[in-house]
Amino acid sequence: MNASILVVEDNLDNMKLITWLLEDAGYSFVTANSAEDALALVTTKSFDLILMDISLPGMNGMEATQQVHAIPRLANVPIIAVTAHAASGEAEKILASGVSALVTKPIDEDELYRTIRACLGGEPCNGQSTHR
Ligand code: MN
Questions:
Q1: pTM for the whole thing?
Q2: 79 by DSSP, 3-state: which?
Q3: What is the tens place of the pLDDT at every residue in 12-26?
Q4: Residues in the 5 Å CB sphere of ion ligand 1
Q5: Residue 11 Cα, ligand 1 centroid: separation in angstroms?
Q6: CA 119 / ligand 1 centre spacing (Å)
Q7: How far, in Å, is the centroid of ligand 1 from the Cα of 26?
């Protein structure tokens, strides 16, 4: 698994957990603590997948998702929202921003791995979403 993943997360504990899980599975990754940092990174680096926290200090993860997908080179990069905002109305709003899937916090490692594998494999990786 040589996929390169961009992890956007402002919470240190969540970031530690996510990067530990990615490391354990052999994925390469780069981290960003804000949407702004993530958008700066994607202008110069290529990623196969993005894990996107939704609540971020400046721009939120939904706006960031739209901005990433507005870059032609990244129009189809799968983005997985990772969020505690699991209320049903909120989930639909997040999916409508263009993410391929939504993983809820607290993070279940099997769910995270399964979703990453599906998204990287080009499969629909969330039943509620339109895969892009
Ligand atoms: Mn956050």
A1: 0.92
A2: strand
A3: 999 999 999 999 999
A4: 10, 53, 55
A5: 5
A6: 22
A7: 24
